[in-house]
Design a protein that fits this description.
single chain; 159 residues; mainly alpha; two-stranded antiparallel ribbon; 6% strand
Length: 159
């Protein structure tokens, strides 16, 4: 008599209910991205730290709160990231003259150097991540990702 037991799925294959869920695929992408970042860009400078340094380099002297919005961090996470970068000598935080609660952010010389060094590797990683796509497909993917991010942020805020 033949065995009528249905074949068991490969233990490494997630169930369809997961693979059809956008959040699951986004999490997979993010986990793979983090692993690639640590391996190819910087094992010490995190993605959020890199984003903060990039934003401060682009607009030195902006306050910490507006920088948080610019790099998609909540204000408490931004404060923690800024303190860590300051302790490492990569960021300078100055108290605003008009409002002692506001912290204005600037790159130190070490921060500028760290950003220059990491930026080249980050752009190389971007190129490797999108190597399968032609320029038009890349632009379309980034537009779609931006649309999703904007929509999902709105959902998270209750809009």
């Amino acid at each position: 008599m033949a065995d009528k037991t249905p074949p068991r799925p490969d233990s490494h294959t997630p169930p369809a209910i997961l693979t059809n869920a956008p959040g699951y695929q986004v999490r997979r992408l993010y986990q793979a991205y983090l692993a690639a970042w640590v391996r190819t860009v910087d094992p010490v400078l995190t993605g959020p730290q890199f984003a903060v340094l990039t934003a401060v380099g682009a607009a030195p002297g902006r306050d910490q709160s507006s920088m948080a919005s610019a790099v998609a961090l909540d204000t408490s996470t931004m404060a923690d990231v800024a303190r860590r970068l300051e302790r490492r000598g990569l960021l300078i935080r100055r108290t605003a003259a008009a409002d002692g609660r506001r912290k204005l952010l600037y790159l130190s010389e070490e921060g500028e150097a760290a950003l220059r060094e990491a930026n080249g590797r980050a752009r190389d990683l971007d190129e490797r991540l999108l190597a399968e796509l032609d320029p038009e497909q890349r632009a379309q993917l980034l537009r779609e990702l931006t649309t999703l991010a904007n929509h999902w942020e709105g959902l998270a805020e209750g809009s």
